[in-house]
């Protein structure tokens, strides 16, 4: 019973990344070819996909290479910037709300309100 608890607790602490103990399973299921397992030099977390490792490293370095051209938003993943751009009406969505102070467009009024509070320090819009 103690061994079962330890293995369950150990799995919970990996943050959903079970790469540490599954090398044999992956090797067998991929026709005997062993995939390269790369580790983060900051924390030792293992990744089989180098792109995932690159994004993970940014959590340590603070690098945020993807920047919004309409506001000061920056992020570590291109998919997060794509999602963010939808708040400005990118990809066909109509930006109905415009900030009167800096002319940044928004598709949702609540997002404009958050912008006014965060960027322009206005309590009531």
From TrEMBL:
<protein>
    <recommendedName>
        <fullName>C2H2-type domain-containing protein</fullName>
    </recommendedName>
</protein>
<dbReference type="Pfam" id="PF23611">
    <property type="entry name" value="zf-C2H2_16"/>
</dbReference>
<dbReference type="InterPro" id="IPR051497">
    <property type="entry name" value="Dev/Hematopoietic_TF"/>
</dbReference>
<keyword id="KW-0805">Transcription regulation</keyword>
<dbReference type="Pfam" id="PF00096">
    <property type="entry name" value="zf-C2H2"/>
</dbReference>
<keyword id="KW-0677">Repeat</keyword>
<feature type="compositionally biased region" description="Low complexity">
    <location>
        <begin position="9"/>
        <end position="31"/>
    </location>
</feature>
<keyword id="KW-0539">Nucleus</keyword>
<feature type="region of interest" description="Disordered">
    <location>
        <begin position="1"/>
        <end position="35"/>
    </location>
</feature>
<keyword id="KW-0804">Transcription</keyword>
<dbReference type="InterPro" id="IPR036236">
    <property type="entry name" value="Znf_C2H2_sf"/>
</dbReference>
<dbReference type="GO" id="GO:0000978">
    <property type="term" value="F:RNA polymerase II cis-regulatory region sequence-specific DNA binding"/>
</dbReference>
<dbReference type="GO" id="GO:0005634">
    <property type="term" value="C:nucleus"/>
</dbReference>
<keyword id="KW-0863">Zinc-finger</keyword>
<keyword id="KW-0479">Metal-binding</keyword>
<dbReference type="GO" id="GO:0008270">
    <property type="term" value="F:zinc ion binding"/>
</dbReference>
<dbReference type="GO" id="GO:0003700">
    <property type="term" value="F:DNA-binding transcription factor activity"/>
</dbReference>
<dbReference type="InterPro" id="IPR056438">
    <property type="entry name" value="Znf-C2H2_CTCF"/>
</dbReference>
<dbReference type="InterPro" id="IPR013087">
    <property type="entry name" value="Znf_C2H2_type"/>
</dbReference>
<keyword id="KW-0862">Zinc</keyword>
<feature type="domain" description="C2H2-type">
    <location>
        <begin position="97"/>
        <end position="125"/>
    </location>
</feature>
<feature type="domain" description="C2H2-type">
    <location>
        <begin position="66"/>
        <end position="93"/>
    </location>
</feature>
<keyword id="KW-0832">Ubl conjugation</keyword>
<dbReference type="GO" id="GO:0045944">
    <property type="term" value="P:positive regulation of transcription by RNA polymerase II"/>
</dbReference>
<keyword id="KW-1017">Isopeptide bond</keyword>
<feature type="domain" description="C2H2-type">
    <location>
        <begin position="38"/>
        <end position="65"/>
    </location>
</feature>
């Amino acid at each position: 019973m103690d061994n079962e608890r330890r293995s369950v607790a150990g799995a919970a602490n990996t943050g959903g990344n079970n790469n540490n103990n599954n090398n044999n399973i992956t090797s067998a299921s991929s026709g005997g070819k062993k995939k390269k397992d790369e580790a983060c030099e900051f924390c030792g977390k293992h990744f089989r996909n180098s792109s995932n490792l690159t994004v993970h490293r940014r959590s340590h370095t603070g690098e945020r290479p993807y920047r919004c051209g309409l506001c000061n938003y920056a992020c570590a993943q291109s998919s997060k910037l794509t999602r963010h751009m939808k708040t400005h009406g990118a990809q066909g969505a109509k930006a109905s709300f415009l900030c009167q102070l800096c002319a940044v467009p928004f598709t949702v009024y609540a997002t404009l309100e958050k912008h006014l509070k965060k960027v322009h320090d206005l309590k009531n819009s």
